[in-house]
Amino acid sequence: MDIVTVLPLAFVMIAGPQIISAVFFATSESWRRASSAYVLGALMSITAVVTAAYLLAQGVGGEEESGLSGIDYAILALLFFAMVHNYRQRNQSEPPKWMGRLQSATPRFAFVLGFLLLGLFPSDLITSLTVGGHLANDGDPWTYAIPFILLTVLLLALPALCVAALGERAQRVLPKVRDWMNTNSWIISEAVIAFFIVIILSG
After folding, report:
1. For residue 56, what are the contacts with CB-CB under 8 A and spacing of at least 6?
2. Whole-model pTM?
3. Gap between the terminal Cα atoms of the chain
4. How far is it, in rounded angstroms, from Cα 195 to Cα 81?
5. How far is CA 190 from CA 70, 106, 150, 199, in A?
6. Could you tell me which of 176, 169, 170 has the C-alpha nearest to residue 157?
7. Whole-number Å distance between alpha carbons of 20 and 92
8. At how many degrees (to 10) do helices 168-202 and 146-166 cross?
9. Helices of type H across the chain
10. What is the pLDDT of residues 156-182, one digit of tens each?
């Protein structure tokens, strides 16, 4: 069941500059190499953070006999922090100007950005820590995190996959999708985080 419950958090991972960067790479001249490098960097960082959180939570201990455990309270604190962070960022209606340079970025830069953005960006770091900690706290195997990781990188790869399938039509539509996501992604993130908080409190 935990495989299913953590999957929605993949949408929190890609909401904001993460998916916007993926769109910029997908509409660049060397979109195949840049997008592949970006997704690979993201894959490595997400896997590393989730694994570290899982091992740390295992070392701290499992569930309490009744009620919430210490790890549950730590996860809830992280999730509340993520909700506040997303809410405070909601009025950023335009992507940062530096993102415009991504269309001429090298694959090496794309890889580093994917690694850092999906590994160290506050909402992503908190979400990956939450997934790893929650699975370990519930006594689930690490492999339960694999669907979450794969869904996250698949969502990041979607802009490039659309370009590969639809060509110029996708490159015309993607900027509109990027603008919509930049304006409304915080609502999706808040809803998913609230859903996960309810799951923890009712568990």
Report:
1. 132, 133, 136
2. 0.81
3. 12
4. 15
5. 23, 33, 22, 14
6. 170
7. 13
8. 160
9. 2-6, 9-14, 17-26, 31-60, 70-88, 107-120, 122-137, 146-166, 168-202
10. 999 999 999 888 788 788 877 777 776
